[in-house]
Amino acid sequence: MRGDFWSTVGEILKYGGSTFAALVTACLYTATDSFFIGNWVGGDGLKAMAVAFPVTMIFTALGKLFEIGGSAVVAEKIGAGQKSLAEQIMRTNYICAFGVGVIVAVVGNVLLELPLRALVDNPEEHAIIDMAVGFLRITLCGLPFLLTGLLTQTFMRCIERPTHVFYMVAICALTNIILDALFIVAFGWGMTGAAGATLIAQILGAAISLWYFKYSRQKFSSSGLAGAEYLWLAWKIGVGFAVADVMMCAIEFFLNGVLFTLDASHLLATVAVANTILSFVYLPLEGLDTGTQPLISKFFAAKKIEHCLRVMRYNFALTMALTFAMYALIMIFAKEVADFFITDNEPITDEMITFLRLTFLLQPFIGVYTWLNGIMAALEDEWRNLVVNFLPLVVQVPLIWLLPKFLPIEYVALNYSIMDVCYAAAAFLLIRPFLRSKGLSLKKIFA
Q1: Domain span at residue 323?
Q2: pLDDT of res. 20
Q3: Following DSSP, what letter does each residue of 165-176 receive, concatenated?
Q4: How many angstroms from the chain centroid is the CA of residue 185?
Q5: Alpha-carbon 97 to chain mean position
Q6: Residues 87-110: tens digit of each pLDDT
Q7: Tell me, what DSSP letter sits at residue 101?
Q8: What is the pLDDT at residue 374?
Q9: How far, in Å, CA of 86 to CA of 92, rounded?
Q10: Residue 337 in contact with residue 277, Cβ under 8 Å?
Q11: What is the pTM assigned to this prediction?
């Protein structure tokens, strides 16, 4: 039993650990931009980052549409011994993702400005919108390259090269850090410099992707494209995760509008800091569980049910340990984190610290939700994730509107914590019949 424990944990850390490290490194993209903008551009720069954040969630939504569903389908085909078909599915995903990225980049640049301008009617706040629009116009151009890089990372895990994910992400993140320092601090290019650094790092990631599957030892050994039915299957699996980010985009856009309407735009800098911290909460958790998904898919497809259950069980323990560790750090050091990102010219107020702490008040529930969500994706769930991720429309939107009517404005951050509980409860209720349909159960996982 002890040998099974350590061997299974070793497998999880091999796959999920590398992806966890990669996504922690990926957090540096957002954190680096926020750090340099907050300290060298100032409070208005951070406010512009908060305005831009909902649009960037569309980028990650598209990535998950291809990435998570594609990973589940490819891992299942590899587990079933169909390597050539798996490679064809990979190639099909690459072509479609790049094409969709180009289309969205073009359409986004045309339509971007109108909804952001609608947020404000105060001429003094238009400068914030100008900065956000300039930042997004450049980063939109990198969307096709971002999607290419994200797909390569997930396919590296599928072909059992999880450590290569870390190397790729680390190279791109280091490039972004160096260029941020050069463009923002040395050249004084401000938000434009931050966007340019991100764009160049994303192009580098796409170049690495091309080299990896065309010229390295892991190059494709088959040719041709997969049928449209496999792309459709991948989209059906990934759409729930994509909708989650689209919902976050809508919620953040609505929250920004409420803050502008209530003359609380000074809290936008805190929203930007909260979003940066959120990336350090969700991405590592997602990295651990997403990295483990190919293991679950492979063992389930190969009929190794006991091994599959052990992976789920021990991954839960690791996920919750990580969740509570991050929770303790955030709640204890909220002020120190805010000080790191916000320049001395923007004093940290008790109102801002309260906002940060309330955002993460019930965060441990998100660890439960992330784990359950990962299992459903690994076993090729096609609709439950989608149902769960529509919850913010019926929970967060009313809360964002109602909370400021009865409580001080900073308590609007409670909408995040309440949503964390709702996510976990809904996923728990939906996964039980889903597991039974697969011949599994939560009881078997924890037996």
Answers
A1: 2-445
A2: 65
A3: HHHHHHHHHHHH
A4: 28
A5: 17
A6: 888 888 899 999 999 999 999 999
A7: H
A8: 85
A9: 10
A10: yes
A11: 0.80
| Number of residues assigned to the chain | 447
Task: Please write down the long-range contacts of 181-185, taking CB distance under 8 Å and 24 or more positions apart.
Answer: 181/36, 184/36, 184/37, 184/40, 184/41, 185/36, 185/40
Tell me, what amino acid is at 428?
F
Number of domains in the chain: 1
Specify whether the CB–CB gap between 400 and 254 falls below 8 A. yes
Phi, psi of 435 (to 5 degrees): -65, -40
Quote the pLDDT of residue 349: 79
Q: How far apart are the first and last CA of the chain?
A: 13
- 3-state class (DSSP) for residue 264: coil
CA distance 385 to 304: 25
Q: What is the pLDDT of residue 368?
A: 92
pLDDT at position 197 is 94
Dihedral sign of CA atoms 365, 333, 131, 282 in order: negative
The alpha carbon dihedral of 406, 412, 416, 419 has a sign of positive
| Single-letter amino acid code for the residue at 333 | F
DSSP state of 327: H
- What string of DSSP letters covers 423-447? HHHHHHHHHHHHHHHTT--HHHHT-
DSSP 195-247: HHHHHHHHHHHHHHHHHHHHTSTT--S--S---HHHHHHHHHHHHHHHHHHHH
Q: Distance from CA of residue 433 to its chain's centroid? A: 27
33 contacts 275 by C-beta, under 8 angstroms: no
Q: Which residues of 136-154 are buried (b: 16+ CB within 10 A; e: fewer)?
A: bbbbbbbbbbbbbbbbbbb
CA 274 to chain CA centroid, nearest Å: 14
How confident is the model at residue 1, as a pLDDT?
A: 46
Query: Which stretches of the chain score pLDDT less than 70?
Result: 1-5, 14-27, 29-30, 221-222, 343-347, 382
Question: What pLDDT shows up at residue 230?
Answer: 84
